[in-house]
C-alpha cells in the first residue's frame, strides 16, 4: 500500500476515532455503564461471539457499554504505532466502526430501517452455522462483499444475479446498491443479504468473515495473524467496491485488506488512494457489447481474483435460478401450474448405450399437460467407477437437484414421486427439459469421480409412464431384496466419519446400518459409496473384531480406532448406550437425548427447538455442555436413530422416552409408532410428554403417572 494512501487514510481514521470517542463519552453520561449491548439481526436473532470483530481481533468480550473502553484505547494505540501503518489503520477502523454500530444499537438505530425497507443488520449465530457449513461443503461456492453503486440498475442486477447463479453468498453494504436492485429477493434464503443503508454496515460482513474463521477454522480469539492466514488460504471470497471513490470507501478498502480479503474496484482510483493490492477493473474498459456483457465479464474477473471454484456449471438455457437454498420452497395451490405424479429411477448403463448431456421429453411439455399429469424420470448413468450399488445413492439426489430449481417443488421418491411447478416458473420459460439439464449438471458436480456420462429422459405420456413403472418397480424390488432388513450384525464393517473434526477435533462418528451419522445426512450406504469414490476421504471401513458387549455395542477394534482418531482422547465407545461411555457429541447433531432421573427415562430434544425443556435448559445449552465430549447421560444422534432397534438398546430402548420436542414427535410419528409396536407398547407415543403438554418437570411427572408410562415400572436407569 502506498505511503500517500497511508497518510490519507490516517487522517480519515483519526477523525473516525475522535467522533467515536466523543459518542462513547456522551453515551456514558446519558446511560448506565452496565447498559447491555446485544448485536442481533432484524428478526432479533443474536449474532455470534458478542461483537464478532472486536472479539475476533482482540479476544475481548463486549457485553456492556463500559466494555467499549478497551477497544477504543486499542484503536488509538494502533493509529499511533509505526506512524499509521496501513494495516494498523485498517484494523483500527474495523474496531472503531464496530464500536460506532454498537452505540447505534444502544440508541435503537440498528438494524436500520429506511424508507420502509428493513435491513438485516448483523448475521445471526444460527445463520453463521448454516451458511458456514454450506461454504465448507461447497453448496455455497464463496462469499462476495459488495458496496457502492453500479453504472446503472441493469448492470447492478446483472452483477448480483450472475454471482448468485454461480453459487456465491452476497453481503451488501450501503443504500446505493440496494436501491438499484428493485427486482431482487432479499434474505438468508435467497443468499442476498442487505446489511445496512450506510457503508459502515460492511462491518457486519467483515465480522461474519472473522466469526467464520473462529467457528470453522479453529482460530483463537485475538489471533489476528491466524485470521488473516485463514482468510488468505481457506475463505473463498472477495470485496467488490462499485462506483466512484470516496473517503468512506477508502476506509472500507483498508479494512478488507487488513483482513487479507481480495479487493476489486470497477473505477480508476486517484493515485494518492491506490493500494498496491487493489485490483482495478474500470467498468467501461471491460470487453462486451453492452453494459450487461461488461457486468458479466466483471463477475468473471472477481471470481478469478477470489480464487473461487464455481462447482455449479453455468447453464444459460435454464431460465430460472437453481440452488440448494430453494429446496424448501413450497408451491401453493394458488401458484400451481401443474402437478406431475409418477416415478423416478437412476440406472447404470454401458458407455456405448447413452450420450452424455442428452435430455429429451417424450410426451407433452408443461404447458400442454394441464393441471395434473404423469411423469417418469429415467436417469441413465455410466462411469468407470460406477456400480449398481450406487444407483440408489444417486437416485436420492434427484430430490435435492430438482427441488433446487426456482418454482419447483419435489416430494417423494421412487414410485411416489411428485413434482409441482409454479405458474411463475412456467411464465419465465421453464420446461421439463430444463429439469433434465439440472440433473445432468448436479450429478456430474457431486459425483464427478464415479459419473462420466448422464442421460435424462422424461416421460409424460400416461400409457408410457404406466408401462415403464412396472419395470421400475421390479428394479426397486431387486434393490430392496439386497438391503431388506439390513442389520448391524449382517455387515462385515461399520464406517467412520471424520467430517466434523474441523469443528470438534476429538469427535468422530461410528456409522452402522442402524445408526446413521448424528447430522442425519450420512447413512451406512452413503459411507460405503463415499469410500468407494474416495478411499482417502472422511469415511473408512471399520472391522467389528473382538466383541465386548453386543447389546451396548462395543468392540475392541472400534475402541482402538476411536483412540487413534480422537487424538488419544477417548479409548472406548458403547454405540447403543447413553450412560456407559457413549459416543462423543457432534456440534451438528440433529437431536440430543439426555436422561431425566426423576422420570426414570430420557428426553429427546430437536435441534430446531429453542424453548426450555423440563430440566430448564435449552438444546443449545445442553449442546454447549456436551459438544465434542463423551458425556454419560447425553448423546447426540440423527432423527432416524429414534426408530432404530439399536436406540438406547442398553437402557431399554424407545420405552425409556418420556419427553420429546413437539415438532419432532409430529414429524416422526409414523416411524415412532412402528418402533413402539416392535417394543410391545403400541401406545407409548400418546404417553410421551412434549413442550406443550408438559413444559415443567412437575407437570411431566404427573402426566407420566396419569398415562402409566412404562418407564416408571422399568429398572432404575441410574
Give the structure's gist in a few sentences.
With 718 residues, this protein is of the alpha/beta class.
**What's the number of structural domains?**
4
Counting helices, strands and paired strands, the structural category is alpha/beta
The low-pLDDT segments are 311-316
CATH architecture of the largest domain: 3-Layer(aba) Sandwich
Report the strand count: 23
- N-C termini distance: 65 Å
Q: What does the overall shape look like?
A: globular
Number of helices: 22
CATH fold type of the largest domain: Bifunctional carbon monoxide dehydrogenase/acetyl-coa synthase(codh/acs), Chain M, domain 5
Instruction: Report the oligomer.
Output: single chain
Q: How much helix is in the residues?
A: 25-40%
> What is the beta-strand fraction?
15-25%
- CATH first level of the largest domain: which class? Alpha Beta
What does this structure look like?
This protein has 718 residues and is α/β, with parallel strands linked by helices. It folds into four domains: 3-114, Orthogonal Bundle (Helicase, Ruva Protein, domain 3), CATH 1.10.8; 117-305, Rossmann fold (3-Layer(aba) Sandwich), CATH 3.40.50.2030; 324-483, Bifunctional carbon monoxide dehydrogenase/acetyl-coa synthase(codh/acs), Chain M, domain 3 (2-Layer Sandwich); 489-713, Bifunctional carbon monoxide dehydrogenase/acetyl-coa synthase(codh/acs), Chain M, domain 5 (3-Layer(aba) Sandwich), CATH 3.40.1470. Helices cover 37% and strands 16% of the residues. The protein has a six-stranded parallel β-sheet, sandwiched between helices. A six-stranded mixed β-sheet has the order 10-14-11-9-13-12, sandwiched between helices. It has a four-stranded mixed β-sheet with strand order 22-20-21-23. The longest helix has 28 residues, at 3-30. It starts with a helix and ends in an 11-residue tail after the last helix.
Amino acid at each position: 500500500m502506498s505511503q500517500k494512501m497511508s497518510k490519507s487514510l490516517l487522517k480519515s481514521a483519526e477523525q473516525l476515532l475522535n467522533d467515536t470517542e466523543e459518542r462513547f463519552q456522551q453515551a456514558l453520561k446519558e446511560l448506565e455503564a452496565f447498559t447491555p449491548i446485544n448485536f442481533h439481526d432484524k428478526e432479533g436473532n443474536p449474532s455470534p461471539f458478542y461483537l464478532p470483530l472486536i472479539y475476533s481481533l482482540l479476544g475481548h468480550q463486549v457485553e456492556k457499554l463500559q466494555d467499549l473502553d478497551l477497544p477504543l484505547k486499542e484503536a488509538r494505540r494502533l493509529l499511533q504505532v509505526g506512524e499509521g501503518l496501513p494495516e494498523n489503520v485498517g484494523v483500527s477502523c474495523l474496531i472503531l466502526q464496530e464500536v460506532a454500530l454498537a452505540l447505534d444499537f444502544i440508541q435503537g438505530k440498528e438494524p436500520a430501517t429506511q424508507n420502509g425497507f428493513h435491513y438485516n443488520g448483523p448475521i445471526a449465530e444460527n445463520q453463521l452455522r448454516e451458511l458456514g457449513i454450506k461454504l465448507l461443503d461447497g453448496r455455497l461456492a464463496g462469499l462476495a462483499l459488495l458496496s457502492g453503486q453500479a453504472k446503472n440498475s441493469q448492470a447492478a442486477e446483472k452483477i448480483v444475479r450472475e454471482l448468485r447463479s454461480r453459487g456465491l453468498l452476497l453481503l451488501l453494504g450501503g443504500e446505493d446498491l440496494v436501491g438499484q436492485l428493485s427486482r431482487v429477493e432479499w434474505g438468508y434464503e435467497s443468499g442476498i443479504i442487505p446489511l445496512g443503508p450506510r457503508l459502515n454496515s460492511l462491518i457486519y460482513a467483515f465480522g461474519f468473515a472473522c466469526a467464520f474463521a473462529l467457528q470453522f477454522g479453529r482460530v483463537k480469539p485475538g489471533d489476528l495473524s491466524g485470521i488473516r492466514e485463514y482468510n488468505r488460504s481457506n475463505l473463498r471470497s472477495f470485496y467488490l467496491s462499485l462506483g466512484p471513490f470516496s473517503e468512506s470507501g477508502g476506509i472500507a478498502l483498508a479494512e478488507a485488506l487488513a483482513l487479507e480479503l481480495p479487493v476489486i474496484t470497477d473505477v480508476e482510483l486517484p493515485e494518492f488512494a491506490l493500494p498496491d493490492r487493489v485490483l482495478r477493473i474500470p467498468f467501461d474498459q471491460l470487453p462486451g457489447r453492452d453494459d450487461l456483457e461488461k457486468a458479466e465479464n466483471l463477475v468473471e474477473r472477481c471470481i478469478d481474483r477470489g480464487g473461487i471454484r464455481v462447482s455449479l456449471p453455468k447453464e444459460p438455457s435454464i431460465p430460472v435460478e437453481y440452488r440448494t437454498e430453494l429446496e424448501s420452497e413450497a408451491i401453493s395451490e394458488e401458484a400451481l401450474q401443474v402437478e406431475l405424479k409418477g416415478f423416478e429411477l437412476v440406472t447404470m448403463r454401458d458407455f456405448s448405450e447413452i450420450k452424455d448431456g442428452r435430455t429429451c421429453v417424450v410426451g407433452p411439455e408443461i404447458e400442454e399437460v394441464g393441471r395434473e399429469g404423469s411423469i417418469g424420470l429415467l436417469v441413465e448413468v455410466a462411469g468407470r467407477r460406477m456400480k449398481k450399488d450406487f444407483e440408489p445413492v444417486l437416485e436420492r439426489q434427484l430430490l435435492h437437484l430438482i427441488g433446487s430449481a426456482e418454482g419447483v417443488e419435489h416430494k417423494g421418491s421412487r414410485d411416489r414421486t411428485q413434482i409441482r411447478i409454479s405458474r411463475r416458473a412456467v411464465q419465465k420459460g421453464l420446461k421439463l427439459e430444463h429439469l433434465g439439464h439440472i440433473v445432468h449438471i448436479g450429478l456430474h458436480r457431486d459425483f464427478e469421480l464415479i459419473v462420466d456420462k448422464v442421460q435424462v429422459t422424461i416421460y409424460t405420456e400416461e400409457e408410457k409412464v404406466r408401462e415403464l413403472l412396472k419395470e421400475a418397480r421390479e428394479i426397486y424390488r431387486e434393490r430392496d431384496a439386497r438391503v431388506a432388513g439390513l442389520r448391524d450384525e449382517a455387515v462385515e464393517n461399520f464406517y467412520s466419519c471424520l467430517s466434523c473434526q474441523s469443528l470438534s477435533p476429538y469427535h468422530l462418528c461410528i456409522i452402522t446400518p442402524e445408526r446413521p451419522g448424528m447430522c442425519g445426512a450420512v447413512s451406512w450406504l452413503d459411507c460405503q459409496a463415499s469410500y468407494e469414490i474416495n478411499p482417502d476421504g472422511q469415511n473408512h471401513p471399520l472391522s467389528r473384531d473382538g466383541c465386548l458387549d453386543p447389546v451396548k455395542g462395543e468392540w475392541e477394534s472400534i475402541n482402538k480406532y476411536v483412540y487413534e482418531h480422537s487424538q488419544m482422547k477417548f479409548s472406548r465407545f458403547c454405540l447403543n448406550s447413553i450412560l456407559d461411555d457413549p459416543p462423543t457429541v457432534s456440534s451438528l447433531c440433529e437431536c440430543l437425548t439426555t436422561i431425566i432421573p426423576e422420570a426414570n427415562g430420557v428426553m429427546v430434544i430437536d435441534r430446531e427447538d429453542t424453548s426450555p425443556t423440563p430440566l430448564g435448559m435449552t438444546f443449545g445449552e445442553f449442546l454447549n455442555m456436551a459438544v465434542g465430549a463423551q458425556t454419560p447421560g447425553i448423546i447426540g444422534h440423527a432423527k432416524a436413530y429414534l426408530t432404530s432397534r439399536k436406540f438406547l438398546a442398553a437402557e431399554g430402548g424407545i420405552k425409556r422416552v418420556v419427553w420429546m420436542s413437539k415438532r419432532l414427535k409430529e414429524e416422526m410419528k409414523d416411524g415412532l409408532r412402528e418402533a413402539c409396536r416392535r417394543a410391545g407398547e403400541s401406545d407409548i407415543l400418546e404417553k410421551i410428554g412434549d413442550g406443550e403438554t408438559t413444559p415443567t418437570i412437575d407437570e411431566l411427572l404427573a402426566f407420566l403417572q396419569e398415562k402409566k408410562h412404562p418407564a416408571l415400572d422399568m429398572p432404575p436407569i441410574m
